[in-house]
Q: What sequence folds into this?
């Protein structure tokens, strides 16, 4: 199972969040490079005015938020349970509904 972690671009000086890439598929362009982020702001941090440069190896941190990971695991478990439920496919219809809900306004 893979867990997605957001990528957060911050100013090295003041920590201002410049951009958050939440997950793959959110944008058709994918993850922007640090150079692209810098160009969006004219090469300067909008808060402190520091020149935005290329990140150095020590600038990159990988941090997993335990609560976020726990919530994501719970969501994946629920999605898996949904997929395992038997479905009733109505003849001539592409829609499927969970068994037991045939008479309900689905």
A:
């Amino acid at each position: 199972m893979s867990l997605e972690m957001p990528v957060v671009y911050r100013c090295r000086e003041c920590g201002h969040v410049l951009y958050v890439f939440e997950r793959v598929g959110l944008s058709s362009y994918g993850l922007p490079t640090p150079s692209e982020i810098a160009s969006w702001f004219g090469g300067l941090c909008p808060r402190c005015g520091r020149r935005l440069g290329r990140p150095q190896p020590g600038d990159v941190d990988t941090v997993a938020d335990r609560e976020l990971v726990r919530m994501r695991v719970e969501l994946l478990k629920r999605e898996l349970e949904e997929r395992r439920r038997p479905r009733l496919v109505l003849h001539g219809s592409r829609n499927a509904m969970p068994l037991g809900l045939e008479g309900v306004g689905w």
Q: What stands out?
A: The radius of gyration is 22 Å. The mean pLDDT is 77. Residues 66-84 form the longest helix (19 residues). The helical segments are 34-40, 66-84.
